Amino acid sequence: MCQVGEDYAEPASEEPPPRQPGREQKCVKCKEGLPVVVIRAGDAFCRDCFKAFYIHKFRAVLGKNRLIFPGEKVLLAWSGGPSSSSMVWQVLEGLSRESAKRLRFVPGIVCIDEGAACGLSPEARAKTLAEMKLILQTVGFPWHVVALEEVFDLPPSVLRCFAQEPVETEGAYKAAVDSFLQQQHVLGAEGAGDSPSLAQGEEQLSWPCTQDPQNPQSPDRPPTAAQTEALSRLFDSVKTLTAKEELLQALRTHLILHVARTHGYSKVMTGDSCTRLAIKLMTSLALGRGAFLAWDTGFSDERHGDVVVVRPMREHTLKEVAFYNHLFAVPSVFTPALDTKAPEKASIHRLMEAFMLRLQDQFPSTVSTVYRTSEKLVKAPRDGCAASPPGPRCLLCMCALDIDTADSATAFGAQTPLHLSQTQPPTPPPTAPCCSAGMGRVQGCCGGARPCEREDPRACVIEQLCYGCRVNMKDLPSLDPLPPYILAEARLRSQRYQRPLCSGSPGGPWGGAPAGPLPTQLLPQGLHRAADPGVPG
Amino acid sequence: ATPPASRSLRGSVSLGDEAVCPGIEAHDRAWRGGAELLFDGVKKHQVTLPGQEEPWDIRNLLVWIKKNLLKERPELFIQGDSVRPGILVLINDADWELLGELDYQLQDQDSILFISTLHGG
After folding, report:
1. Of the candidates B19, B98, B101, which has its C-beta nearest A326's C-beta?
2. Cβ neighbours of residue A353 closer than 8 Å, sequence gap 6 or more
3. Could you give the 3-state DSSP secondary structure of residue A506?
4. Region of residue A232 (left: phi > 0; alpha: psi -120 to 50; beta: else)
5. Does B41 contact chain A (CB < 8 Å)?
6. pLDDT tens series, chain A, 537 aa
């Protein structure tokens, strides 16, 4: 296995692992209890020590990152599976009054019903939903169950990043905690209605947020048959399982983001475990998403701006999760996924999972090594552009596009002129003066009229995607089945880009409030081809 | 103590997580998934292993399971002479790594639980 740098000072004898500790051994922690589970390479824990270890890890990950402020509204993304169920349970226990150091945020749960994409019958979906609701009611947080079909009702604004102020300093966090504790003290130790803590079994009415758990925004109605049909059609039209997985992930993310924004949640917690993230890191590399590894696998993902995704389970392996859930009766609901029972080579995701797990079997430090590597990934802007306005973002995954039209040295840059030449008459090279200004990072900008809204919506969308998303789009022969918000936002952005770029306007249309089309007199005349009938205004 | 080779062994082989959500009867959970998808949808199998010359260990049990319980796609559950990587094995609620993995000798009334950690979650 490749090793990196001086951190990996572990002796080579770590692999193959020392032969298993026998049952005669005692727990490595308390030295007394009978061990029930082996963690990492050879550490045997007894039941109680394992529980303490597991809970402590969850708290430590949250505590050391200090991103969640007291009283903040946090949306827990629950799929029903073991990792996210464990996460919900940890939050539940962490908020309860009895804990020594209570968690202090205000949770809600969102659950996406993806049955239509996975080809489940309505009866199966209904049964699964019923079970999930039972658990949701037991947990007692405000919850939102959303069918994936609702992507057809999403507004284009869900794809925009609403820039936030820079991350708070260390001092601000401490000050927030202190003032929160003072408030608590003033309100009395009883933890009256204003307190966000919830002892198990309390009624939901004690929650300060007035969310009706039945979600007043969209009352509990099942999606229409037409929407289900449309979703099935969309997924059936995708040629490979890999692309289906990626599309599903994108749609799921958009939907969760929408729920978070609609109900005022500023954080979303997902249950990605250490094992899952290690697999995801390798899969992302294979998918061409190497530039975004830090966001895809790090603890926090701020690509959306106002809503930050955090991954508190990222230090728990799947084995630990499975054991904890079994030993301490954490309820979960199995929902078949896109690739349930699929053979190993059906998709890149499956292949990578099999590869990693097989390697992990023989070399138990595989997952942790990949994980530690992922921790070192830094979210740095490209050289020299730290001060410039934020660049364009991928339409689907919303990561900052890391491309240059002028950068024809890369395969990525070389793609650009190719498809443009298929759709319009020869244009001046992309190094026209207007493009070299700070905002000239969108490929195919200016240089003449763009036929986007006139002729080729597909080229219009493809241009606004990062490399990984473009490759996925190749497996989607027609963009028609896509939910309307994607195409609408693509059109909006391409229209917006034609003008401000040419005039060198610093107001980036990507971040902040969306800008309307600029009046024509701001355009340098030479660049606005009056002959193009498709350009509005 | 190992039972004499000629006597049969009784025990249970279970699949998936046994945690039951409060309020749901086991028989109401008509749609279950996970490893039991490969076992005809049955979560818990009471099993009687016939007496035989060789002692029953997990290795032999897996062969027996493949022949008698696995209804489809054996490669999703068994790989070589062991379980597929990603499938956990618990013997009487303890990690099989503590008990010798494939070499563990089965005792009467043992309970073997397989938990799949593959995808989902």
Report:
1. B19
2. A279, A283, B86, B118, B119
3. coil
4. alpha
5. no
6. 554 444 444 444 444 444 445 556 788 888 888 899 998 777 899 999 999 999 999 999 998 888 888 889 999 999 998 999 999 999 998 888 665 567 789 999 999 999 888 888 889 899 999 999 999 999 999 999 999 999 999 999 999 888 765 555 667 777 777 777 777 677 655 444 444 443 333 333 333 333 444 444 444 567 888 999 999 999 999 999 999 999 999 999 999 999 999 999 999 999 999 999 999 999 999 999 988 999 999 999 999 989 999 999 999 999 999 999 999 999 988 887 887 767 778 899 999 999 999 998 888 889 989 988 888 888 766 554 444 456 788 999 998 886 654 444 444 444 544 444 444 444 444 444 443 444 434 444 444 444 444 557 788 888 889 999 999 999 999 999 999 999 999 989 888 766 444 444 444 444 444 444 444 444 344 444 444 444 443
Substitution target from B14, B15, B17, B87 for chain A, most A beta carbons within 10 A? B17
Query: Do the Cβ atoms of A354 and B85 come within 8 Å?
Result: yes
Q: Is B27 on the interface with A (CB under 8 A)?
A: no
Question: Do B115 and A322 make contact, defined as CB atoms within 8 angstroms?
Answer: yes
**Chain A neighbours among B 42-71 (CB < 8 Å)?**
none
Q: Kindly provide the b/e burial profile for residues A389-425, where b requires at least 16 CB atoms within 10 angstroms of the residue's own CB.
A: bbbbbbbbbbbbbbbbbbebeeebbebbbebbeebbe
- In angstroms, the separation between the Cα of residue A451 and the nearest Cα of chain B is 42
CA-based nearest residue in chain A for residue B102: A20
pTM exceeds 0.80, yes or no? no
Whether residue A37 and residue B115 make contact (CB cut-off 8 A), yes or no, is no
Residues of A in contact with B98 (CB under 8 A): 20-23, 25, 35-38, 44
Task: Work out how many CB contacts closer than 8 A connect A with B.
Answer: 125
Dihedral, CA of residue B20, residue B22, residue B26 and residue B27, to nearest 10 = -150
Q: Say how far residue B34 (Cα) sits from the centre of its chain.
A: 13
- How is residue B80 written in tokens? 């070589």
Q: Which residues of chain B are within 8 Å of residue A358 when distances are taken between CB atoms?
A: 85
Cα→Cα distances A28→A21, A41, A317, B48, Å: 10, 12, 19, 36
With contacts defined as CB-CB under 8 Å, which chain A residues touch B23? Answer: 134, 138
